[in-house]
Amino acid sequence: MSLPHRVALAPLTRCRTAADRVPSDLHALYYAQRASAAITISEATQISPMGIGYPGTPGLHTESQVQGWKRVADAVHACGGRLFIQLWHVGRVSHPTWLDGETPVSSSAVALRGETRLANGTLVPAVAPRALALDEIPLITRDYVTAARNAMLAGADGVEIHAANGYLIDQFLRDGVNHRRDAYGGSATNRLRFLREVTEGVVDECGSARVGVRLSPTNRFNQIWDSNPHELFTLAAQTLDAFDLAYLHILEGVAGSMSAPAEGCTPVAPSMRKAFRGTVMINGGYDAQTGDAAVRGGLADLVAYGIPFIANPDLPLRYRLGAPITPPNQATWYAQGANGYTDYAPMMHAEPSLANG
Ligand SMILES: Cc1cc2nc3c(=O)[nH]c(=O)nc-3n(C[C@H](O)[C@H](O)[C@H](O)COP(=O)(O)O)c2cc1C
C-alpha cells in the first residue's frame, strides 16, 4: 500500500451509534472528512456482543453493521482515503448490563478497582470477570477472524487488532492481570499466545498487508500493568515481525503527554522498533514538530494523531502549511450527533459530498 504522507488518524471512540451499534451516514461523513490521513483508522469496533463495554460504540458482527461500515468505507474511498477498522473486545472492562446479564470475561478473574459507568450514566462498582476456559479462547479468536472477514466484506482496506489500553488482548499480555497457569499464562511467550493466534487467524483471513496491530507497552490505562514491559513488548514486536504486517502501531507518548510511559517505565518503543522490521507507527501527544523529529530520528515511519484530528479534519494539510490548529471541545468527545463531531470546518477544501454514495 503506498501512502501519500506519514500522518495517520489514531483510533478515536466517539460513542455516536444508535442502539443497533450500526455506523450511520453521520459516521460516513465524519470519516470522509478525515480521509486525507495516510491511514484512516476507525474507532474501536466490537467483534462480538460479549466485547461491548461502552454506549454508542459500533460493532462488526451483524449484517446491518457490515452495511454501515460499507457506507463508511465507500465514503472514505470517494475522498481518496484508506480505511482500517479497529477490532476490539473489552474483556473485563465491561459490565453485565452491557452483556444481557452475563459476566464479563478476561484472562483471569481480576476485577478493575473502582466504579464503572452504565448506559444511564450511573456509577456502579466494577464487576469481577470470569477467567476464560481453555476451550473458549479459540472461539474468541474465531470472532476476531469473523469480524475481520466482515471488514473485508464492508470494503475496508484493512483491520487493526486492538491489543492495547488494557482491553482483552492486553489482559492476556500483561502479568498484572494475567495470572493463568496454562499455555496462555506465565512466561511472556505464553502470554503472547492469544495475540499470536488472533494475528495468525486474521492474517490468514485478510492477508498480512491488510493487518496492523496496536500495542501500548507502558501505559496503565484500565489499570493494566506488567512487571517487565521491555521483555514482554520487545518479544511481542519480534513475534509480530514474522507476520509481515501492514504496520505495528505503538502507543507510547512523548514525555509530558497523557500517554507518556507510566511512572517508573522507560520507553520501550525504540527496542520494539529494532525488533520489528516492517512499518512502525508511533502515537501519543505528538504535534507536527515532534512527529517530524520521530520520523527523522528513525523511531517510526508513520505518526498517528488522535486529539489533534478531532477539531482539525484536514490535519495533514494544516501540518504541511504550518496553519493554526484548532483545539477540540472535550465536552463533546463522547456526545451525541454532529455537535463536536462533524461540525469542525476544514480550512480550505470543500466539504466532502456523499451525494453519490
Ligand atoms: C476521545 C478519545 C477516544 C479514543 N478512542 C480510542 C479507541 O477507540 N481505540 C484506541 O486504541 N485508542 C483510543 N484512544 C487513544 C488515542 O488513539 C490516542 O492513543 C491518544 O489520544 C493519544 O494520542 P494523541 O495525543 O495524538 O491524541 C482514544 C483517545 C481519545 C482522546
Please give a structural write-up.
With 357 residues, the protein is of the alpha/beta class. The chain has a single domain, classed as Aldolase class I (TIM Barrel), CATH 3.20.20. The chain is 30% helix and 14% strand. The protein contains eleven helices and twelve strands. The chain has helices at residues 25-33, 63-78, 137-153, 168-173, 188-191, 193-206, 229-241, 269-275, 288-296, 307-310, 315-321; strands at residues 7-9, 40-46, 83-88, 105-106, 115-117, 123-125, 130-131, 158-162, 211-215, 247-251, 280-283, 302-305. Strands 1-12-11-10-9-8-3-2 form an eight-stranded parallel beta sheet. α3 runs parallel beside α6 and α7 runs parallel beside α8. The longest helix is centred in the middle third of the chain and has 17 residues, at 137-153. It is globular. Flavin mononucleotide (FMN) is lined by residues 10-13, 43-44, 86, 162, 164-165, 214, 251, 253, 257, 259, 283-286, 305-308, 333. Residues 10-13, 43-44, 86, 162, 164-165, 214, 251, 253, 257, 259, 283-286, 305-308, 333 line the site of flavin mononucleotide (FMN).
A few lines on this structure:
Helix content is 30%, strand content 14%. The chain has 11 helices and 12 strands. It is globular, with a radius of gyration of 19 Å.
